[in-house]
Amino acid sequence: MTKDKDRVLNIILVSPSILAVLIFVYGFIAWSVRVSLSKWKGLNPDYTWNSINNYIDLFKDPRFAVDVKNTLIFTGVFVIGSLSLGFLLAVMLDQGLRGEGFFRSLFLFPMAISYIVTGVVWRWLMNPAMGSRMSGFNLLFTNLGLDSLVNAWHTTPQWGMAAIALAAIWQMSGYTMALYLAGLRAIPQELKEAARIDGASEAQIYRHIMIPLLAPVTLSALIILGHMSLKVFDLIVAIAGKQLQLDVPAIYMWQATFDGLFYGRGAAIGIILLLSVAILIIPYIRYTLKTEAQQ
Fold first, then answer.
1. How far lies 12's CA from each of 16, 52, 58, in Å?
2. What is the pLDDT of residues 118-158, one digit of tens each?
3. SS3 at position 232
4. Any idea what the CATH number is for the domain that residue 186 is in?
5. What total number of domains does the chain contain?
6. For the chain, what percent of residues have pLDDT higher than 90?
7. Nearest to 118 by CA among 239, 19, 225, 218
């Protein structure tokens, strides 16, 4: 009887949370799917069935093609840059550096800042203005005699999204550093010592032992950074505003929904973003659960 009462009490305690998740997460997802299949345009709701025409129109839209291209560029630079810099910082701290606690906190600090604040700071650092209005990196390069490095940053047509990604790398590389540092500290020192006795150099130890053993950490960081890059919105708006050259699906969704009042198209973009994130997250969750079951 006591076990039955405890089970009932546990169900009663968690039922409000379950109900809230069902309504405010899955309920609104279902509602967004329904809106994406409608002709709703304007302030007045219009649930007239439109099948998948909103999705078809999106994939025919040249602007959405630009959005996908920009997202791929941003994701590639952001993920590779964050993983590379985070790994290098973790290796440096793993050498028993004096003042490790200070540097660890210093590298992690940007993560505590919102993307809006990061965007405002980096908008000044990457100011593309020339002449008397020059500031930030361009002014620093000029004063150091490195005029060849002066550029237009995010206003450059060829690599504007890559410049935006630099700010995101600065913010999230400390997070990947923490993940890699935890992974490095979990690897037994005996493996390193055995490799050194066999004549392996430090570079060979990291290449053939440490990096392969850090594969689960790399996968976790890849999933986390990847899904963040797919939803990027506030960083781009804070640095450059809403420009077609730097457009991404999240900005298109905002403008279609709230500026153009095209709720059907905006909901369709939102569902595409949700599916994109799910493609990353679901296989990772299955892999994690399978690994835990085998252990």
1. 8, 40, 44
2. 999 999 999 888 887 888 899 999 989 888 888 889 888 77
3. coil
4. 1.10.3720.10
5. 1
6. 50
7. 239
Q: Is residue 11 part of a domain?
A: no
Q: Which domain holds residue 106?
A: 62-294
In a domain, 161, yes or no: yes
Compute the distance between CA of residue 80 and CA of residue 73 in angstroms, rounded to an integer: 11
Examine residue 44 and state whether it is found in any structural domain, yes or no: no
Q: Please state the pTM of the whole predicted model.
A: 0.88
Query: Token pair 């505003």 is at which residue?
Result: 241
Task: Let me know if 14 is exposed, middle or buried by CB neighbors in 10 A (0-12, 13-18, 19+).
Answer: exposed
Contact of 164 with 235, CB cutoff 8 Å: yes
Alpha helices in the chain (DSSP H): 2-21, 28-36, 53-60, 62-93, 100-108, 115-125, 136-143, 160-186, 189-197, 202-205, 211-213, 215-230, 234-240, 249-254, 263-294
Q: What is the pLDDT of residues 232-248, one digit of tens each?
A: 999 999 998 888 788 99
52 within domain boundaries: no
